[in-house]
């Protein structure tokens, strides 16, 4: 239990120990009770000329924001996501893919927020497709959602519990919307959470940094791709029976 009578600096140390650096976090990784969660890297919201960006001027994102976002995705985020996916697969760790996708063609099952936004990725539509560079492989789990967070509108928590997953590494878009919401919810549900800084994107560096600043030291570890790769290799480099 957190000691609320402690000073601000000491209380932060309590948060770090309880949520970020607890020994159970790396123990879960060693025991393969960890998963990479890839969020919303699909044609709906991550590809120029499709979905939200079919008409760029009507997207609500400035040209400067669009240029920044798509450049970061192409040059940094997707290559890093791919590296992380490959390492998790090589280490016998789960790679889970979340996307915005309705259950029905007309989207009548969507959340009220998505209906008000006019946000629809129908089953089988181009908008619901993952970008091929980071698409699921084999029978990797796909979670369809119609809300910002991956937990409230899906059975993700139930699925993770069934597989004994305790530690989550999160990548994808948008940093300040679906990624941050999912990270907060995961922390509240008891998972150890890491958000990978250079494998996430939103429409400005300022929004990205502000979002990670909120998560850091409270809801999630914030690490780079290289740091995560090093951690995964270090903790999973022996066969399971030798741990």
Automatic annotation (TrEMBL):
Source superkingdom: Bacteria
Molecular function per GO: hydrolase activity
Keywords: Hydrolase
InterPro entries from the UniProt entry: Isochorismatase-like_dom, Isochorismatase-like_hydrls, Isochorismatase-like_sf
Pfam families named among the record's database cross-references: Isochorismatase
Domain named Isochorismatase-like: residues: 77-227
Protein name: N-carbamoylsarcosine amidase
Organism of this sequence: Roseibacillus persicicus
């Amino acid at each position: 239990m957190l000691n609320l009578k402690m000073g601000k600096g000491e209380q932060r140390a309590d948060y770090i120990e309880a949520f970020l650096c607890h020994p159970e976090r790396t123990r879960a990784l060693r025991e393969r009770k960890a998963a990479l969660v890839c969020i919303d890297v699909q044609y709906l919201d991550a590809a120029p000329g499709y979905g939200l960006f079919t008409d760029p001027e009507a997207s609500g994102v400035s040209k400067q924001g669009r240029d920044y976002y798509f450049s970061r995705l192409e040059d940094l985020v997707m290559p890093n996501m791919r590296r992380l996916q490959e390492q998790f697969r090589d280490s016998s760790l789960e790679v889970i893919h979340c996307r915005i996708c309705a259950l029905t063609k007309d989207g009548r099952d969507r959340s009220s927020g998505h209906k008000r936004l006019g946000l629809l990725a129908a089953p089988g539509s181009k908008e619901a497709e993952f970008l091929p560079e980071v698409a699921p492989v084999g029978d990797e789990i796909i979670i369809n959602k119609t809300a910002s967070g991956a937990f409230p509108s899906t059975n993700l928590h139930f699925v993770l519990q069934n597989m004994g997953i305790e530690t989550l590494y999160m990548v994808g878009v948008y940093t300040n919307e679906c990624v941050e919401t999912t990270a907060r919810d995961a922390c509240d549900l008891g998972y150890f959470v890491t958000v990978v800084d250079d494998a996430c994107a939103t429409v400005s560096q300022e929004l990205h940094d502000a979002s990670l600043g909120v998560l850091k030291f409270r809801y999630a570890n914030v690490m780079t791709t290289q740091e995560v790769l090093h951690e995964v290799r270090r903790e999973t480099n022996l066969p399971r029976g030798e741990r």
